[in-house]
Design brief:
By secondary structure, the chain is an alpha/beta fold. The protein has 14 helices and ten strands. It is flat. The N and C termini lie far apart (87 Å).
């Protein structure tokens, strides 16, 4: 009996001593549990244990218990929905490191990051004193660096800090952290939508199909609102118009909004989105895409339109139709875009696309080439009407003047109206009568990046035009 008791006691001692081995890793400021090595990611989770104390690390004591719980609930929601790790970290010291190095090391050496790619983001607040405060956000993994690109995290112009800075400056640290989590959730949802529609789905340019497009024709695929610029009803209305155009002309129109172009130029991002997603109707992949990038501030947002296929490049030709400064498309769109009326701008674009495709179809049916900004018959008809109206108006105006001048005679000099010797100039002087001031308006910050006809990275021919607004 004593032997059994001794064995049980020994087992209990061993069990108690082994508990620390199963405890959560100690989350420290620098090297952490893994010292100076970066652990490999794991499938279906993270290396570090997913607990509130590990993911809301409030070393600066900025949050109440209830606030920490609320933050962790949001972090949990994001992790379950998007398989993405988010860490909230506050501290009073970065141990002599730069903010970027301290934040990255904390994430890396503590084993954060979901899955093999260690996808995640961390927001670090260092509150050393009232006058010495700093903030840094870092993303890791293919998803983290895409959703939180350098442009998105630009401290001066990026959309994330534009929301956070007023809250942080006011000392509303909990509100700032929650706003960051909500922004992360929105951006991850937008990326998930884009991925599901096939963003970068093809590593090469897929061949077109006989009747339709490679990508499935659905609202979420053709109105890709990653910047959350439209309401649900507006997205439905845009897709309804896109459907009517596709049915009538066998032509693809794509609406894309984004908050990041992944470091690419607007023309390259727009072309690649169209090409590598399998958009474009028929074997020739006929279609057009309107891209809005709303990451920048006023005067620094991007718009680009790209046409593909023989119809797309003719109807939306670079030289005239998509000229950013003088072309008919952007003449209508720029005032709406500059005013932030994105839905109105998109609908105006679809209406103009419908009209221009109609002109093109009529011109082809009448034996034309379709390679003119307007079909020749339309141009001729408008010119003839304008000339006829002008001639009629001119005829009536001249006739009225002629009737009132019954005594008019041709005179070769003014002598008939002057009394001989009655006009003598004795003194002459110059007097200042008035001044004229002319003013020239300062040009708005609108610059063109019109790409003209070009070949995209996939090797496809495109027309294109766009610029900043």
């Amino acid at each position: 009996m004593k032997r059994i008791i001794s064995l049980l006691a020994a087992f209990a001692v061993v069990l108690v001593m082994s508990v620390p081995a199963f405890a959560a890793p100690e989350v420290t400021g620098t090297a952490g549990e893994y010292e100076n090595s970066d652990p490999a990611g794991v499938d279906g989770g993270s290396v570090i244990e997913f607990t509130q104390s590990n993911y809301v690390v409030d070393n600066a004591d900025l949050f109440t218990d209830d606030e920490e719980t609320a933050l962790f609930e949001k972090i949990t929601e994001i992790r379950n929905e998007h398989e993405f790790d988010i860490v909230c970290l506050t501290t009073t010291s970065t141990d002599g490191k730069e903010d970027a190095d301290y934040t990255d090391d904390f994430f890396d050496y503590n084993g954060y990051g979901y899955g093999v790619d260690r996808d995640g983001a961390i927001m670090m607040l260092c509150i050393a004193s009232e006058d010495d405060r700093s903030v840094y956000i870092s993303g890791r993994g293919s998803v983290g660096t895409d959703v939180f690109s350098s442009a998105v995290l630009d401290f001066d112009e990026g959309p994330v800090f534009k929301e956070l800075k007023p809250l942080l400056s006011a000392g509303d640290y909990y509100d700032a952290e929650m706003k960051f989590l909500e922004t992360a959730d929105e951006r991850l949802a937008g990326r998930k939508s884009a991925v599901s529609t096939g963003e970068y789905a093809y590593t090469s340019d897929p061949a077109g199909v006989e009747d339709g497009s490679v990508i499935e024709f659905t609202q979420s695929n053709y109105v890709v609102d990653n910047a959350d610029a439209f309401t649900d009803s507006e997205e439905a209305a845009l897709f309804e118009k896109i459907t009517a155009i596709r049915t009538k002309y066998k032509f693809d129109v794509v609406i894309l909004t984004t908050l990041s172009m992944n470091g690419k130029k607007a023309v390259d991002y727009t072309d690649d989105f169209f090409d590598y997603n399998g958009y474009g109707y028929g074997v020739d992949r006929d279609g057009v895409i309107l891209m809005l990038c709303l990451a920048g501030g006023e005067g620094n947002r991007d718009v680009h339109i790209s046409g593909r296929g023989s119809v797309g490049r003719n109807v939306f030709n670079s030289k005239y139709v998509l000229n950013f400064d003088n072309g008919p498309i952007f003449k209508e769109l720029k005032p709406l875009l500059s005013a932030g009326r994105y839905y109105d701008a998109e609908m105006k674009f679809l209406e103009m696309a419908d009209e221009r495709l109609g002109w093109y179809a009529d011109d082809i049916a009448n034996g034309g080439t379709g390679k003119v900004p307007y079909p020749a018959s339309v141009i001729l008809k408008r010119e003839l009407i304008a000339v006829a109206v002008a001639m009629v108006i001119a005829f009536f105006v001249v006739s009225m003047f002629k009737k009132t001048m019954k005594t008019n005679r041709i005179r070769t000099s003014a002598g008939n109206y002057e009394k001989p010797g009655s006009m003598r100039v004795t003194t002459s002087n110059e007097y200042f009568v008035r001044k004229q001031v002319s003013r020239t308006a300062i040009p708005k910050n609108e610059s063109s990046d019109s790409s003209g006809d070009h070949t995209s990275s996939s090797g496809a021919s495109h027309s294109g035009g766009g610029g900043k607004f």
